[in-house]
């Protein structure tokens, strides 16, 4: 009974000042719409950009780095154990870049429940012999199917069939930039010289385009077997083990763990792409800031309108108090008005925000660098809707708080005497 | 029933501090007992309205003691005072003070809705009964601002009766009406006194009105001359 009376009073006051109420509501609708649209769009873009790098980057990469030994022979000598060792001009030893016993390591990863998949890789420095010219490049030897399953390799093969790498002997998928430079068409044969001086003929079966020009000028792909053959290495020769996890947040910890166990180098995605994460974070921070600013501005709109309403409805408030409404009742009436504006404005705003998202999603957006993207990206994560909804109620509550307090403290005697 | 005190004011003093400290009520002491129809008379500015605001619990800034229905109200919390106003006091102002956002019927019902002791249907029924006393039942669904001054005041009185209050207080309820309408309102008060034995305390300027009441309290310069 009591709440329905307060709701009734709030409704009557809003209807009495219908235009202002609508204006305040439109403010909320607008800001919530913008908030949701901005965040969905911005995060859609973020995910697209993240995907550009993160989707095809291993969560952890294991490899042997070429570096100087951490222990020098003199340290083993007891005669000099209490001396300072000053050694100049240390050079890295000709250590193997191949990962020793990699089959066992890969088996361990495959048994680890946190791991989604493992793919081997060999990176080989080569020269493409184009007429009289040598163009330098890198050929990545990959497990074709695993590379595609885990790192979306297939998405970036823009011409030809990526499976040809596996089924056609001595085949290569050229980076688009490299192919353009070499004027190599699909079906052509290119000649490659490895750093060791081996020459090999490879048939072009496709183009690869990552969207990152620098990469596409240099990187090409062949099957791991082809590269092993090219380098005259055994089938156990592998330079990189790429691991994808179910939860990529575990990467740094697992990298450290396995680094210890196997005594090899490990890079986790967070460390490698720290600056990328920072960019993403800043972009979402900016969109949250803009969205919240909009909401606060609309909160001021509500604040103004409630103040005006209270000023105009002094008599009504006084009479309600004379009749026996307590300060708390009056306070609740005005808080209810504010929350109602926030609630309905918020709901309509969320709906419009959703529509705006659908609209943006229809806008064609094709970039050569982004072969899988056809329209502008929008992230319809319910999170943004929940945040916007909560914020609309919170800001309208605070916008109503002070006017409501003012209304509740109106002294009816002052008003009645004033007549 | 008769003889039980409804209002007991003891040595009520009231000061205003602006522009300078002035004592506008001086040791006001009097009683109103159940069923009495009492009028308060006095020159303009002698403190009648000020007294009435204190008696109706709207003004709490005074010295002295005030009992309503034998309950000490001075020093009570604001929420309790609101309850007392809602349940035990009906107030009629010089200006009608209806809520223009609501219909006549809703205006009369609001104190009942606030009290919350009856269902909406029952309250509607009660409110219609109250309107019928004043022959206003045909206007029940009009908006408050569609009525004439006299009609508004009748609705305001109906509203003050909504919760069957212990006492009705009026501050010059006919002061803003023409002769014809003030006669109507005056007769309403008389009827309430005679037929319903409604306890009433009405401030008036009108000697004729005062003459028709059980007792006249005369005020002068903040003092009650007889009590
Ligand atoms: N808010 C106020 N501040 C200062 N003085 C006031 C105030 N309200 C009323 N007064 C003074 O108190 C005295 C009594 O006023 P009031 O009770 O309204 O008289 P009445 O109703 O008998 O005409 C008057 O002299 C008036 O000027
Ligand atoms: Mg007066």
Categorize the overall geometry of chain B: globular
Question: Ranges of chain A with pLDDT <50 over ≥5 residues?
Answer: none
> Helicity of chain B, in percent?
25-40%
Structural class of chain A: alpha+beta
Question: What letter string, H or E per element, gives the SSE order of chain B?
Answer: EEEHEEHEHHHEHEHEE
Number of domains of chain B: 1
| Average pLDDT of chain B | 91
Content-based structural category of chain B: alpha/beta
CATH topology annotation of chain B:
Rossmann fold
Overall pLDDT confidence of chain A = 85
Largest sheet of chain A: 10 strands, mixed
Kindly, what is the distance between the CA atoms of the first and last residues of chain A, rounded to a whole number of angstroms? 33 Å
Count of alpha and pi helical runs of chain B: 7
CATH class of chain B: Alpha Beta
Number of strands of chain B: 10
Rg of chain A (CA only): 33 Å
Characterize the structure shown:
The complex is a heterodimer of chains A (419) and B (227). With 419 residues, chain A is α+β, with helices and mostly antiparallel strands. Chain A has helices at residues 2-16, 18-55, 102-111, 144-151, 164-167, 176-182, 213-218, 224-230, 251-262, 269-272, 274-312, 314-323, 327-362, 382-408, 412-418; strands at 60-63, 115-130, 133-142, 157-160, 171-175, 189-194, 199-208, 219-223, 240-245, 265-268. In chain A, helix 12 (314-323) crosses helix 15 (412-418). Chain A is elongated, with a radius of gyration of 33 Å. Chain A starts with a helix and ends with a helix. Chain B is an alpha/beta fold and 227 residues long. Chain B has a single domain (5-224), classed as 3-Layer(aba) Sandwich (Rossmann fold), CATH 3.40.50.300. Helices cover 36% and strands 26% of the residues of chain B. Chain B has a 6-stranded mixed beta sheet with strand order 6-7-8-3-9-10, sandwiched between helices. Chain B has a 4-stranded antiparallel beta sheet with strand order 2-1-4-5, covered by helices on one side. In chain B, strand 9 and strand 10 (223-224) form a beta hairpin. In chain B, helix 4 packs across helix 5 (149-161). The radius of gyration of chain B is 17 Å and the shape is globular. The two termini of chain B are 21 Å apart. The relative contact order of chain B is 0.20. At the A-B interface, helix 1, helix 12, helix 13 and helix 15 of A face helix 2 and helix 3 of B. Bound molecules: adenosine-5'-diphosphate and magnesium ion. Adenosine-5'-diphosphate is lined by residues 16, 18, 24, 42, 44-50 of chain B. Chain B: Keywords: ATP-binding, Lipoprotein, Nucleotide-binding, Translocase, Transport. Chain B: Belongs to the ABC transporter superfamily. Macrolide exporter (TC 3.A.1.122) family. Chain B: Pfam families: ABC_tran.
């Amino acid at each position: 009974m009591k709440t329905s009376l307060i709701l009734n009073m709030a409704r009557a006051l809003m209807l009495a000042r219908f235009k202002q109420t609508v204006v305040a509501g439109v403010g909320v609708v607008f800001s919530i719409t913008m908030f949701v649209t901005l965040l969905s769009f911005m995060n859609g873009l973020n995910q697209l950009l993240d995907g550009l790098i993160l989707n095809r980057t291993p969560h952890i990469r294991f490899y042997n780095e070429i570096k100087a030994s951490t222990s020098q022979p003199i340290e083993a000598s007891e005669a000099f154990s209490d001396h300072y060792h000053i050694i100049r001009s240390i050079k890295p030893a000709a250590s193997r870049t191949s990962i020793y016993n990699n089959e066992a390591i890969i088996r361990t990863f495959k048994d680890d429940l946190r791991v989604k998949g493992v793919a081997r890789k060999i990176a080989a420095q080569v020269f493409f012999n184009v007429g009289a010219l040598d163009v330098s490049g890198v050929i990545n030897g990959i497990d074709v199917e695993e590379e595609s399953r885990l790192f979306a390799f297939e998405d970036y093969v823009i011409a030809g069939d990526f499976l040809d790498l596996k089924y056609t002997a001595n085949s290569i998928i050229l980076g688009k930039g490299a192919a353009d430079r070499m004027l190599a068409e699909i079906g052509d044969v290119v000649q490659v010289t490895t750093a060791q001086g081996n020459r090999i003929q490879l048939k072009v079966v496709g183009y690869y385009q990552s969207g990152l020009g620098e990469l596409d000028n240099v990187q090409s792909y062949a099957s791991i077997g082809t590269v092993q053959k090219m380098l005259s290495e055994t089938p156990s020769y592998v330079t990189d083990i790429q691991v994808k996890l179910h939860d990529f947040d575990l990467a740094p910890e697992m990298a450290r763990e396995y680094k210890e166990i196997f005594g090899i180098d490990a890079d986790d995605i967070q460390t490698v792409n720290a600056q990328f994460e920072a960019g993403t974070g800043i972009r979402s921070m900016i969109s949250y800031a803009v969205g919240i600013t909009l909401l606060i501005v609309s909160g001021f709109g509500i604040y103004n309108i409630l103040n005006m309403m209270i000023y105009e409805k002094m008599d009504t408030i006084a009479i309600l108090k004379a009749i026996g409404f307590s300060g708390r009742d009056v306070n609740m009436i005005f808080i209810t008005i504010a929350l109602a504006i926030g609630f309905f404005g918020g709901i309509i705003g969320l709906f419009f925000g959703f529509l705006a998202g659908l609209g943006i999603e229809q806008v064609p957006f094709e970039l050569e660098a982004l072969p899988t993207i056809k329209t502008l990206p929008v992230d319809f994560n319910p999170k943004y809707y929940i945040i916007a909804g909560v914020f609309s109620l919170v800001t309208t509550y605070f916008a109503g708080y002070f006017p409501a307090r003012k209304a509740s403290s109106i002294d009816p005697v002052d008003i009645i005497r004033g007549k | 029933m008769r003889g039980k005190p409804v209002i007991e004011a003891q040595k009520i003093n009231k000061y205003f501090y602006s522009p300078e400290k002035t004592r506008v009520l001086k040791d006001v002491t009097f009683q109103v007992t159940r069923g009495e129809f009492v009028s308060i008379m006095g020159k303009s500015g002698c403190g009648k309205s000020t007294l009435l605001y204190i008696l109706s619990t709207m003004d709490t800034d005074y010295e002295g003691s005030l009992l309503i229905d034998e309950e000490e109200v001075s020093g009570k919390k604001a929420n309790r005072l609101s309850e007392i106003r809602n349940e035990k006091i009906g107030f009629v102002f010089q200006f009608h003070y209806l809520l223009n956002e609501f219909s006549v019927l809703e205006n009369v019902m609001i104190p009942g809705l606030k009290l919350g002791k009856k269902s909406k249907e029952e309250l509607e029924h009660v409110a219609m009964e109250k309107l019928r006393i004043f022959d206003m039942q045909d206007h029940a669904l009009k908006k408050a601002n569609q009525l004439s001054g006299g009609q508004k005041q009748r609705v305001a009185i109906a509203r003050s009766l909504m919760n069957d209050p212990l006492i009705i207080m009026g501050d010059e309820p006919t002061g803003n009406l023409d002769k014809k309408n003030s006669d109507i309102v005056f007769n309403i008060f008389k009827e309430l006194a005679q037929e319903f034995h409604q306890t009433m305390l009405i401030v008036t300027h009108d000697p004729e009105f005062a003459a028709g009441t059980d007792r006249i309290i005369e005020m002068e310069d903040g003092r009650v001359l007889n009590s």
